[in-house]
Amino acid sequence: MKMEKRKEDETSSEEERSGVRHRSPSMEDYLEAIGTLEDEHGLVRVTQLSDALNVSKPSVTAAVGRLAQEGLVMHEKYGSVELTPRGKAVADDVWRRHEALWVFLAEILGVSEETAEEDACKLEHYLSPDATERLTRFVEFVLEGEKGRPQWLEDFAAALTRIGLATNRSPVRRVETMTPARGRN
What we know:
Shape: elongated
Number of domains: 2
Helix content: 55-70%
Strand content: under 5%
Distance between the termini: 28 Å
């Protein structure tokens, strides 16, 4: 047991040092969904994950088993699924990438909220830690500056409109939620 714990810690440290993630997009989606459902409902059941991810219960059970073997979730047969501290860190990282991308796409590029959501879900798995940090800082710099939304951003939106690309100017400002980890405790 001690060796397994040490190996997990070494793997986690290696990931942090190298900036390389070793999980499939599917496994990251499971972790992100578990984190979101925990935030909303507390306990997470296989059925909730199945519904949220639109996959079969046997697929969820298999994926949860793999995540449990990696020490990312705790799950007893027929019981709830719970993120471990390491799983929570991964879920929060995926969520942070998702939010940075969503805000960039919707608030800066002006794509629709629906498109921003779909694209952020796809792209979040391929963004490096360095790119995530830079994108987050860029979005915060652009949208949270002392003078408000910069004129060049308004000029960009106007240029898109002139060529027939309507822009989304969402009343939902998600930039405030990017830095803290989803309000989780």
